[in-house]
Amino acid sequence: MSNSPELLGRRYRIEKKYSGDGYILSKATDIVSNDRTVGIKTPSDAVMSNESALAKFVKEVELQQKFDHPCLVKVLHFYKQGEIDSRCHLVTEWVDTTLDEVLEEGDIRRDVAIGIVQLIIRGLVHLHDNGIVHRGIEPNHIFLSSNYSTVKIGNFGNAVKIGYDQTFPGRPRYEAPESYDPDWSIDQRADVYSLGFVCYELLIGKKKFQAQFPEIYGEKDVTVQADRWLHWHLDPERRLEKLSSLNPDVDERLSQIVAKMIEKDPRKRYMDLQEVAGAFGSSNQMLGWREEIKPIDVTS
Question: How far is Cα of residue 79 from the mean position of the Cα atoms in its chain?
Fold first, then answer.
């Protein structure tokens, strides 16, 4: 048996593999480009044999390829089915960890949490400026360097153009209520809502966040969990406890900002993330990269 390392496309040396939700995720070394570390996402056999799931993945990649922004995970290469083997392979820049993994390790300081949110806003504003709603903002889709100085948004599988008017059949953990209303066109306020939930969890920690939803996190069946999330978001009477009452480091003003981000009625939310940035009181600092990055064509 050969002990030679596995090479993808005679270029990427596979260092470690992880099992994902329908995908194989690999950490690899680019032996052609100064031994740069990269990430590789490969659909499982089940996804490759499902025409609809495979088409969704390819569409996600094609959209992600259009963007080159410091707060969005960059596509480095996409091998289509048949170029190397019977599968397709998405190669992206490598980022050390996910926000979900960071939250698993323990609580984050308030200033660090706000810094992470600021960088997420930068990436989302670039998407919104180009007519795209990410519609999948949650800790598993936020990637960070080990010192948190780099924050990038990934997983574009649920992204749609602003004005999308079909209901969303996906994962409802942080999904805005209007995503399930066929009479409502999706706009950037859906990302405001999801980011509000991420901000809430960052500011109180994972354990206190999960304690807000005992009927959801007490359930082991993920299908039942998803159904209960859906009912929570759609019930106008269900509200999160005020942040300032859960974390003494969160002042009343910050608590009110996050509460407005997660208003269930989109008409009561901030209109966009520029408003959110202004509410945080540091919009110039947060959006300073906007003028340096040209808009791109997302019409095709």
Answer: 23
Q: Dihedral through CA 207, CA 212, CA 215, CA 216, nearest 10?
A: -60
With a cut of 70, say whether residue 286 has pLDDT above it.
no
Task: Identify the burial level of 213 via C-beta atoms within 10 angstroms of its C-beta, where 0-12 means exposed, 13-18 middle and 19 or more buried.
Answer: middle
Alpha helices by DSSP H, listed for the chain, are 45-48, 51-64, 99-105, 110-129, 189-204, 206-211, 214-217, 222-234, 252-261, 273-280, 283-286
Task: For residues 218 and 173, give the distance between their C-alpha atoms in angstroms, rounded to a whole number.
Answer: 14
| The model's pTM | 0.89
pLDDT at res. 271: 94
Q: Is the pLDDT of residue 11 over 80?
A: yes
Q: From residue 43, how far is each of 21, 47, 68, 284 by CA, in Å?
A: 9, 6, 23, 40
Distance CA 234, CA 228 (A): 10
Q: Residues 100-118: what's their mean pLDDT?
A: 90
Tens digits of per-residue pLDDT, 34-70? 899 999 999 999 999 999 999 999 999 999 999 999 9
Q: Give the chain's radius of gyration (CA, Å).
A: 20
pLDDT at 4 over 60: yes
Pair 243, 262: CB distance under 8 Å? no
DSSP letters along 129-183, please? HTTEE----SGGGEEE-TTSS-EEE---TT-EETTB-S---S--SS--GGGG-TT
CB–CB of 233/176 below 8 Å?
yes
As a whole number of angstroms, the distance between CA 128 and CA 143 comes to 19
Sheet holding 151-153, edge to edge: 97-98, 142-144, 151-153
